[in-house]
Amino acid sequence: xxxxxxxxxxxxxxxxxxxxxxxxxxxxxxxxxxxxxxxxxxxxxxxxxxxxxxxxxxxxxxxxxxxxxxxxxxxxxxxxxxxxxxxxxxxxxxxxxxxxxxxxxxxxxxxxxxxxxxxxxxxxxxxxxxxxxxxxxxxxxxxxxxxxxxxxxxxxxxxxxxxxxxxxxxxxxxxxxxxxxxxxxxxxxxxxxxxxxxxxxxxxxxxxxxxxxxxxxxxxxxxxxxxxxxxxxxxxxxxxxxxxxxxxxxxxxxxxxxxxxxxxxxxxxxxxxxxxxxxxxxxxxxxxxxxxxxxxxxxxxxxxxxxxxxxxxxxxxxxxxxxxxxxxxxxxxxxxxxxxxxxxxxxxxxxxxxxxxxxxxxxxxxxxxxxxxxxxxxxxxxxxxxxxxxxxxxxxxxxxxxxxxxxxxxxxxxxxxxxxxxxxxxxxxxxxxxxxxxxxxxxxxxxxxxxxxxxxxxxxxxxxxxxxxxxxxxxxxxxxxxxxxxxxxxxxxxxxxxxxxxxxxxxxxxxxxxxxxxxxxxxx
Length: 524
Prior knowledge:
mainly beta
């Protein structure tokens, strides 16, 4: 048969791939069977396809090894994509004839063993993705000698040892090493990294100070053991967009005005930073995410925080004091505000805004519909959508929210401060908010009846304050509510009718209010 192209991708085919496919269709150049339900092993007859340049069997249920017939017989292969199957064993045997291989994607399988030396013969390799497997051993030095290699992804394996000294001085543009067992000094391996744009090495055991690599667009070295101060030269990294150094041992104060012009995300949580914020992020025209939580920062929250286009402000577990700056009300695309566990005082600003990025985009579409055939992401104003996960507490637990979830999520956490005054009824206008936590403050007055407008809310915590009066009966209309807590206040009267979600709340939601009665409290 003279068929040269076979594309049956993204269907509902199941069963085995015909064992004789390579015999009957030996002249195939392009084969794409991805996105089906094929099971069984990869047919050894594929090795008969000496003209085959493209093979994609990804997103199936294939098992077994990569047949040696394929790696020896498919001498013309340029792209081999076997991602997201259940393949196992060694990646390749010691013998391989895939000398023209340009792209190799084996991620999302169960391969074991070390990175095979036979891959070094594929000298034209440009993309190598071995992530999400069970590989072990060290990163071989010959990877740094692969002249054409641009993308290397070894994340989510069990690779150990230190980084080869020539890896970052190569032509590689993107390196992904997250969630392995790597160790040693990261700074020592960074000499001459002129081409590197993306470094993702989170959740390892790397030590040393923050490495210098001026062309980076993404630097994620979170969850390691880096130490020292944040260097002033970071402000000269003109391409840097995402900086994530969270969960390290970084100390000292934040440099003044160190913000590169294109920076959109700063994640520095869970370090040992101290001192004042001063003007560290004053000149950040594109900053969307600012996460400085779990540090030892002091002083007042700076007023310039309302001058940058923040969508996610996370300053919890520090020692900030003074009032919540009214300038926060100038931020018209806020999705997350977490100022919990500080020493903030004064009243809650009545003008706070908070909604999901999805809602803001919908409003833009209504007010200014696209006039061209461009996709919405092109026709509308830039997103305030993060690319890194963000940690936020909801329903009494802390979660890492992935960017795809954050698009639909919004919340305010002002708990564990010294806030006083009444709860602004204007907060009831935040009808798209998912989480509102005002607990452990010194708030007085009644629960605003306007809270019945929070139709999307899932977690509402007003406990440990000095609130009084009755619980608004209209709150039973909050059908999405999963956590409700008004315990330890001075509320009186009857508890809300036990209907819908309120039938699920137990005594702990109401306890500590001596003048409150009704189920589920014992004083009916």
